[in-house]
């Protein structure tokens, strides 16, 4: 059954996903001769770079989420529906969703990425992902519940599993999470849990390759590792996880770590929706796109952001899965869609690499801006500034800023709350359905 | 099995509940010759007077919650455990909890109150309570999900149920919630849902007695009602709910309202724990206490706040269930416990009534300070000032203040997020248990 949507005389651009790429594209189509229909399973945009601060009690979840409807307030050609898309039928120019079928003239896949366990089912069943707000809140509950449980635990083995925290994956998310856990331990736990022996609380960061922050400069890699070690994190590089059954993490070198908290930030893959020809799908569940972001094999289907693999000679693996790439592609595609309906020539996409950065702790960050590289206090302020500016919504910026100032001067993490009990997989909002 | 707690040479005061009364008492026992053990099912204190702003998207939940451990940072005689108390055994001076048995020298019941459905099972099964943060978040999800669903609903009857919002109970919570819903409708929905016919969105406030705000002055009652009517709320007084099956609310006068959202703020009762003699329990599931807050029939068991019924000639129904009463009793009982172990005379409790206030909307509140009564803008600022001052935690005060300023100037409600799907009863954190 077709879903009833407001009528429009203009061609319909159907955007799946309200992440960085999707919202940039939809914004840029304002006052253009299109009807923009956006679908997302949430009614809000998530600022993923700060999810780790929600998990570790530094920020309230609501300050990194922004209502999607509010972003497009007053945009007359914009229609939004909360739903999950089940299948794409490109040959019929339509998608099937939980609330009905929706046809399109142009389809934009902006679905982002999801956690990649590389097929390891046991790890998937027991480790904690951190890609959505419910997942981050779930992790926050688990960490705090484990601390509470440790106070009443008499079994020494179980006690250790409660107080060992393992982060797998040494990319920016893994580094930032391990650093935040270390600060939680050193600044908050000693006050909150005077009964607890802090020497028993251990934080591990496990990375398969020889260096952390693989995409950054050797200086940044070294400095990040030094920072972490200084902060008491056990950094294990060239270390591979063999298995994790929920209580023991086994490494390829024979080591094993008793732990009930494994945070999995070792990889992502495209959040693919069924229906695409096999030839258009490449490594990491991504859609192969050309320089105009058109998906291989299709003329009116596009992909932007993490789900898109724009493979060129300079970028044989595609572009990095970061917000600037998604934003630039969203902006560019909006322009090309308008060029197309105006019968003007399309322009190929050119990625402008803004550099990269990661924060480890207070006064401790690393920044690579091409040839300019710096680490430490100034890098940390730069990191905070860039993140505040990118955060969607003025209210959110103010609330995050207040928290950061507060945390800086008080050494505190104010939102260490177990609002809902930890569940292995948090329940996501169900797609909107008719009650009939 | 006894729960192991840190050793102490001093008598143990066991406080059940980290609400206004419990935290005031425990704070005042700092540096006194007691071991203070506090139990709560949450690891945070909830600022209940602002829960309705969480439900209606005006405040983030984390800004009205405060970690209990943090309140008592550095208080050496304080021990905290997250757990639910199952039974009190006064004759053995101990309580049974999910994590083991705990003995006491003095027991303080500070468990507060819970929603009272007056035995109406069908209403309990279908209406929404709003006494805890998970409940308030659940209500927020329901309200927003209903709006999203209405956009894809073709059945006219179901459509009406989604857009009729009914608040039952005309006390401060009911008045404040109805007012907040009206502001959400008038200031947010018209921007967020341009497709929606706002005339179809109706807000009802139902009260059994002839006046709203029964405990306040006739001026305040009249003005609150005028404010609500002006804001488009349908106020039905002398109106009794007969039944609610989840889709139709039936009133005693024969009227019926199709609605899938009924917010039940019609009554509270004490959050009683089994184990007390029947003679000590009075109307509304409360514990009868004397002027020293000792529970009738016991010499070392006390009750403060909403769970306590201090019945005197002037207050035949007990004291009102408000924060100042709980705080004053907590402070007073701490003093009397110290008097008792110091062999000094106990002092009877005297309630200092600070007056009462309720807010209806922006620039619209009512305040009764004994003989001084005022309504409108100044009352509204007074209401905000008093609530900000009572809110626990400086970070929370700042975040709430930022939100209020933001909401005032933008007419916005920034946290309209469906983070977790609505469930009839939100899952509460489970008490901490050993894994063994």
The total beta strand count of chain A reads: 25
CATH class of the largest domain in chain A equals Alpha Beta
Helical content of chain A stands at 25-40%
What is the average per-residue confidence, as pLDDT of chain A, rounded to a whole number?
94
Low confidence ranges of chain A: 431-436
The radius of gyration of chain A is 22 Å
- The CATH topology of the largest domain in chain A, please? FAD/NAD(P)-binding domain
Name the chain pair whose interface involves the most residues. A-B, 71 and 71 residues
Strands of the widest sheet of chain A, in order across it, are 5-2-1-9-21
Total DSSP helices of chain A: 11
Strand content of chain A: 15-25%
Number of domains of chain A: 2
Q: Which secondary-structure class do the elements of chain A indicate? A: alpha/beta
The major sheet of chain A is characterized as: 5 strands, parallel
Q: What is the distance, rounded to the nearest whole angstrom, between the alpha carbons of the first and last residues of chain A?
A: 14 Å
Which features characterize this protein?
homodimer; 436 residues; alpha/beta; FAD/NAD(P)-binding domain; 2 domains; 5-stranded parallel beta sheet; 4-stranded parallel beta sheet; 11 helices; 25 strands; 31% helix; disordered C terminus
């Amino acid at each position: 059954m077709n879903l009833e949507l407001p009528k429009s005389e203009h061609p319909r651009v159907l955007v799946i996903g309200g992440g960085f790429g999707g919202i940039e594209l939809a914004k840029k189509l304002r006052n253009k001769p299109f009807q923009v229909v956006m679908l997302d399973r949430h009614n809000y945009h998530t600022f993923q770079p700060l999810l780790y601060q929600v998990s570790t009690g530094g920020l309230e979840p609501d300050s990194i989420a922004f209502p999607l409807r509010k972003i497009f307030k007053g945009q007359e050609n914009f229609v939004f529906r909360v739903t999950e898309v089940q299948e794409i039928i490109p040959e019929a120019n339509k998608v099937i969703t939980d609330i009905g079928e929706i046809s399109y003239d142009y389809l934009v896949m902006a679905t982002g990425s999801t956690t990649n366990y590389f097929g390891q089912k046991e790890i998937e069943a027991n480790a904690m992902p951190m890609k959505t707000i419910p997942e981050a809140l779930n992790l926050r509950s688990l960490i705090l519940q484990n601390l509470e449980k440790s106070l009443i635990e008499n079994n020494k083995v179980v006690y250790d599993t409660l107080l060992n925290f393992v982060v797998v994956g040494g990319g920016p998310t893994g580094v930032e999470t391990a650093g935040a856990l270390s600060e939680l331990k050193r600044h908050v736990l000693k006050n909150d849990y005077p009964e607890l022996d802090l020497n028993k609380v251990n934080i591990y960061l496990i990375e398969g390759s020889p260096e952390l922050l693989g995409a950054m400069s050797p200086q940044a890699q070294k400095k990040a590792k030094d920072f972490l070690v200084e902060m008491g994190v056990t950094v294990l590089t060239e270390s591979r996880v063999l298995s994790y059954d929920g209580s023991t993490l086994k490494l390829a070198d024979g080591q094993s770590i008793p732990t009930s908290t494994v945070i999995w930030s070792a990889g992502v893959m495209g959040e693919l929706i069924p229906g695409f020809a096999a030839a258009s799908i490449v490594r990491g569940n991504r859609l192969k796109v050309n320089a105009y972001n058109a998906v291989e094999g299709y003329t009116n289907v596009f992909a932007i952001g993490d789900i898109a693999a724009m493979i060129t000679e300079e970028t044989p693996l595609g572009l990095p899965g970061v917000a600037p790439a998604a934003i630039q592609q969203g902006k560019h595609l909006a322009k090309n869609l308008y060029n197309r309906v105006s019968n003007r020539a399309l322009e190929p996409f050119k990625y402008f690499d803004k550099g990269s950065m990661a924060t480890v702790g207070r006064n401790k960050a690393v920044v690579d801006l091409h040839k300019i590289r710096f680490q430490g206090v100034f890098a940390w302020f730069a990191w905070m500034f860039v993140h505040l500016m990118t955060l969607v919504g003025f209210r959110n910026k103010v609330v995050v800023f207040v928290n950061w100032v507060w945390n800086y001067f008080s050494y505190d993490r104010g939102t260490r709350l177990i609002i809902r009990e930890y569940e292995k997989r948090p329940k996501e909002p169900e797609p909107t359905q008719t009650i009939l």
